[in-house]
Amino acid sequence: MNSNFLQTPIEYLKGVGPNRADLLKKELGIHTFQDLIHLFPNRYLDRTKFYTVNELQQSTAEVQIIGKITHIKTIEQKRGKRLVATFTDETGKMELVWFRGQKWIKENLKINVPYVIFGRVNWFNNLFSMPHPEMELLSEYEKGLRPAMQPIYPSTEKLSNSGITNRVINTLMKTLFSDPKLDLPESLSKNLLKGLKLLGKNDSLFNIHFPKNNNLLARAQYRLKFEELFYIQLQLLQKNRLHKLKIKGYPFAQVGELFNTFYNEHLPFQLTGAQKRVIKEIRNDLGSQAQMNRLLQGDVGSGKTIVAFMSMLIALDNDFQACLMAPTEILSVQHYNGLLEWSKQLKISISLLTGSTTTSKRRKIHENLENGSLKILIGTHALLEEKVKFKNLGLAIIDEQHRFGVAQRSKLWRKNKLPPHILVMTATPIPRTLAMSVYGDLDISIIDEMPPGRKDIKTVHRYDSNRLKIFRFLKEEIALGRQVYIVYPLIQESEALDYKDLMDGYASIEREFPKPNYQISIVHGKMKPADKDFEMKRFVKGETQIMVATTVIEVGVDVPNASVMVIESAERFGLSQLHQLRGRVGRGAEQSYCILMTSHKLTADAKTRLETMVRTIDGFEISEVDLKLRGPGDLMGTQQSGVLNLRIADIVRDSEILKVARSYAFQVLREDPGLEDPENRPIRSTYSQLVKYKNIWNYIS
Ligand code: ADP
Ligand code: MG
Predict the structure, then answer these.
(1) What is the torsion angle, in degrees rounded to the nearest 10, for the CA atoms of residue 524, residue 530, residue 536 and residue 542?
(2) What confidence tens digit (pLDDT) does each residue in 11-28 have?
(3) What is the pTM of this model?
């Protein structure tokens, strides 16, 4: 093996030198020969195709033409000199233009000899022109060996301005690949290569840079994509496995009296199959020696809370405490009331701790937590305060991910010897393929089934011009005793305008729905928290029939009597937001409605979003569309987009390869967790190299 050669600094490659090396490092992150080899082309140009001048169009990208230069002249203008050559074939004429290196070119160009030119064309002064074409005499071209498919490498403006063109990269690749010292060890096992009929490493890398034909190129791409995804998955799964080995957790040996009594006697409804499955997954985790780290995904209303509650009962059955943390006060209160109801006959002590808990109550809670008589604590961020010390916290449940960091969470168990088991619940479905890549090291449970009897939410798209009809419909619903949300967008960049829209909207709704027949609540971000809370509570209690709001109501409010969600300027919301908002209705027994209001001016993406909302209420299906529209980086926020910085694979387009890679990585680790089998030697050595150079193709989590 020759890994030393591959780690040679890039400046030692013939044709590079210190200046170019600097640029390659800064612009493309290429430090070594190995890095250069793994600079994969973005796309390929078909160099078997020749254009004639009369076939050119303004929209054509790079083209290849055979013809002759008939005339050269230098044109001087205020902005500088340029060299212009007239180039003709049988069908017409065009111009070739140079701004740099004019002297050398002028002296070396041959007149009336056939050339092959290649480059991008511009339409200028009623003539096509090609600036700085790649040129080769036809006679040379015919002798030369070249791939039918010309690779186009990633580049930056700085690189091309400094003369490191695609052709230069190409030449560097050729230099490197013709070095006899180059030896690319196979990085996958024979089993994998055979089982998946993959192209070998050498052939793959050679064909990705110098494709012999389309078929070999496709096989090379498949293999390299597979490899990239395979090693990411291997790393994630390994991390998960090591976590389980190293991070011990409290084994909850028994499922005891509380759980069983509740399950057999007090279950308020029959659990769905998905809920049962997920509870079993959690029970397995809790019973093992390892600390649980589980993400529970389930659409709004899928019934995550009871799963949380029953998991807590297992903790209590094993003499541990449990806590449930929610992002807002309202949500905490809802959880508290719900859990009180469910635990009525169980005689367990539950408390609520939020920012508005009085000092005396607070003191009592602190005391009972420490002496262990308080078993379940529910609350907001207040749970993270210094004074909150559990005697023995065994299970921490966090509702709605993304809102608490790991460092924050660990404050919960400052008194523990071992970390408690962690269950994070989220109603924001993440496409499976994305979850596999971003949360691949967590265990994931999914509730993909709604409780029975849940009515579909009728979703329609209406134009602003129909507003009066909508108002009439709202009045009918209110007359039936229902409540209505009307939501306005509030986007930071256009905040002032958005507030104006909200206030204008509010004024027109007040006119349309006058007191005392109608009562209206309004909630937005500029209000004081206390006022917001007051208005929310009025709506929750049913004192107001209409809630006019910005997106602050997005998270988790539960008003089962609300049956209509009107979303104004719906074209301005993202899919996941629309889906979350719609989830505010359809919580009661009544038929619910979601009305998406828009203007007539809609972009193609906005149309897709609206059509998707009208077509389905399945959060996972919606998240898949969202992923396709926005790409993985946007979907996960900038923070995590680095994780998805793949060299050749694409999470959206290559999701099938990802699934295969994950299942193979899983299988390899199951059969040979230490990668000790001689058969797996190539995997072991590649893996340890990647870890050593912290470079799973840039993947660092
Ligand atoms: P979410 O997953 O959004 O947190 P919840 O746990 O709040 O959902 O459940 C939504 C509603 O459905 C609650 O009123 C809950 O009591 C009810 N529910 C949950 N599971 C079932 C079930 N298996 N059968 C009937 N109703 C259920
Ligand atoms: Mg919930």
Answers:
(1) -140
(2) 999 999 899 999 999 999
(3) 0.70
